[in-house]
Design goal:
extended; 6 helices; about 50% helix; about 170 residues; mainly alpha; CURT1
Length: about 170
C-alpha cells in the first residue's frame, strides 16, 4: 500500500499572518512563480560602456625612399587590355556617333522593358509551366529534325555558316 505522507510545501507567511497568529488560508498556500534571472543578464556588465571612438582616416601624401642608392626611374605604363583598344579603334571609325549612342541607349531600354515583361509573365499562374512545356517540346522537335540524322546535321551546319558569312560579310 502506498503511504499517504503529506508532502512539505514551502509556506509563505506574511507579517500580518504572524501578527494575527492565524494560519494562512489554503488559497494563500498556492506557490507563487518566481522568475530566475536570465543568463544573458548575468553576463552583461553593470557599469556603463564608453562610446566607441570613431577614427577618421587622414589623407597624407608621404613619399619614402631608402637610403643608399637612388632608385631606378619608375615609369607608370598601365597597359590597356586588347579588347579596350579594339573598342576604341572601332569607335574612332564610326562616322555617326550620335546614332550609335542612341541605338545603344534604345537597346538598353528595350532590354530593361523585356526583362520587366518576362518578370510579369512569370508571376502569372500556370503560364510559366505551360511555356516550359512548350520550350521542351520545341527543343525535342528541333533536335529530332536537325540533329539526329547526318544529312540534316550537315544542312544545319551549312545554313549556320552561310548566315555567319552574310552577317560578317566575308566568304
Amino acid at each position: 500500500m502506498a503511504s499517504t505522507t503529506p508532502t512539505s510545501t514551502p509556506l509563505s507567511l506574511s507579517s500580518s499572518a504572524l501578527l494575527n497568529a492565524k494560519a494562512p488560508s489554503p488559497a494563500r498556500l498556492q506557490p507563487t512563480p518566481v522568475a530566475a534571472p536570465s543568463p544573458l543578464l548575468l553576463l552583461q556588465p553593470t557599469f556603463p560602456r564608453p562610446m566607441p571612438i570613431v577614427s577618421r582616416k587622414i589623407a597624407r601624401n608621404v613619399v619614402s625612399m631608402a637610403t643608399g642608392e637612388a632608385p631606378a626611374e619608375v615609369v607608370a605604363t598601365a597597359e590597356t587590355p586588347e579588347i579596350i583598344k579594339t573598342i576604341q579603334e572601332a569607335w574612332d571609325k564610326v562616322e555617326d556617333k550620335y546614332a550609335v549612342s542612341s541605338l545603344a541607349v534604345a537597346g538598353g531600354v528595350a532590354l530593361w522593358a523585356s526583362a520587366g515583361t518576362i518578370s510579369a509573365i512569370d508571376r502569372l499562374p500556370l503560364v510559366p509551366g505551360v511555356l516550359e512545356i512548350v520550350g521542351i517540346g520545341y527543343t525535342g522537335w528541333f533536335a529530332y529534325r536537325n540533329l539526329v540524322f547526318k544529312p540534316d546535321r550537315e544542312a544545319l551546319i551549312q545554313k549556320i555558316k552561310s548566315t555567319y558569312n552574310d552577317i560578317i560579310g566575308s566568304s
